[in-house]
Amino acid sequence: MIDITVILPLFNGGQYLRDAVLSVEESNSDISIELLIVDDGSTDNSLSVAQALTKEYSNIVVLSKQNGGIASARELGLKNSNGRYITFLDQDDRVISGYSSFIRQMEDKQADILMSDPFYSRHGNVQKSNTIKEDRLYEKEDCLNMGRMLFCPEVFTPVDAEKRHLISVTSTVWNCIFSKQFIVNNNLHFQSNVRFEDDWIFIGQSLGCCSRLMVTSYSFYCWTINNDSESHSTKYVQDMFTKRKRHKELLMNLVSNMGANESQLQGFEHILDAQTIIICGKNAMLLPLKNYREEIKQLKSFGDLRKYSDFKVGKLSSFYLSLWNLGWYGSSYVLNRIIRSIG
Description:
Structural class: alpha/beta
Number of helices: 13
Strand order of the largest sheet: 3-2-1-4-10-6-11-9
Shape: globular
Largest sheet: 8 strands, mixed
Oligomer: single chain
Strand content: 15-25%
């Protein structure tokens, strides 16, 4: 039986891949590992680099698919995984410690999920995140509270000081190890709604049905903050309004199923609408002016935008809200272009 499956989505990252793979292979000689590399329609030599690595390491399996984003790549990896435990690795990151001691913790505590405190690297400077400061086991009710706070801290953050430690939960999957049986039993999947939010939603869903969560201040993962990576790029997303609508429906259903009351649901919906206005408005500004004018008119469906002025989005976004509410679409567009040219 394979101890753990490591799922590594790959897109035009062949130059990073060997280092990522070596970090897994060299730190985990004491357990059986399946390394699934999922090529997400790379347009460079990434797939051939991955296939070459299978000749060096017999535990590597390469899957290839049409480009659909990191969530769909992770989902394909999940469907093809054979390990008792599941974890994730991004192509430009690395593993800095073996998984075996963390798996033992999960087995000892009968945990569904282990969440570790990661390191991060920026321009070669490596530092500890210090988001998780102590080792602790959380039971079902605390896990549920964590999931609700992750989706909407403005509504669900507890006033009780004794519960505020629950806020330290992280929203990424690569510093976590999941029981495969837990994922299967709860029918957990990665949602391809809007870019880069698959981690957050998957973690929130997982916490909503988790019976035992082990958090630890020890680390096995180092995240490389790469400004050239997909998650740091700014590009236009097609049909953003439709995707955000689906995103809202998904989150409202999830939070409702997690026991939110009517008042909390209304507050959550208000915040989701405010986020949609800002996200879709800024996304439209990436278009040529003519196309922007057509797309930005969809904001009218939200009515008077001043009712969202209480949502703390920063001074610039608040100013955009004011301009859009007045119908001054061209002014907001020109301002955005000036700011982007300066920045």
